[in-house]
Design a protein that fits this description.
By secondary structure, the protein is mostly helical. It is built from five helices and no strands. It has a domain at about 35-120. It has helices at about 10-25, 30-35, 35-75, 80-115, 115-120. The longest helix is centred in the middle third of the chain and has 38 residues, at about 35-75.
Length: about 130
């Protein structure tokens, strides 16, 4: 008898795992995070690419809604279904881009504030560099 082979995670499985991780992250108490800035730095550094990927998911979803709206239009769907789908796609795309940009900037700012020497070393900025302003 052979042992069962582990299944390859599906995109939905990855999304569920990410949602579970996000719930665990939001359950952390602020005092726990404040107790160790190095862990917070590492966490923020790990989450930066996730924010980008999440914005890509929203963009793909907005594209799918547009495709459905076009399909509904081509099939002569009665009512305002195509218009509502296009509106939802537009709002989803606009909000995802704005929020991802905002979150990314805030997280990047947090990295520099948490551990300036590590931030500069990670990005190849000399430790004695001073801004020109």
């Amino acid at each position: 008898m052979t042992s069962p082979q582990p299944r390859t995670p599906t995109p939905v499985g990855h999304a569920k795992a990410a949602a579970t991780a996000l719930q665990a992250l939001t359950a952390l108490h602020r005092a726990q995070l404040a107790a160790n800035p190095a862990d917070v730095y590492a966490l923020v550094d790990e989450l930066l690419p996730v924010v980008y990927e999440l914005s890509r998911v929203y963009d793909r979803l907005a594209g799918q809604l547009n495709d459905w709206a076009d399909l509904a239009s081509s099939r002569g769907r009665a009512g305002d279904v195509p218009q509502r789908l296009h509106t939802a796609a537009s709002q989803l795309g606009m909000h995802s881009a704005n929020h991802a940009c905002w979150a990314h900037q805030r997280m990047e700012d947090a990295l520099a504030a948490l551990d300036r020497p590590r931030y500069r070393a990670d990005r190849g900025i000399p430790l004695d560099w001073k801004p020109s302003r």
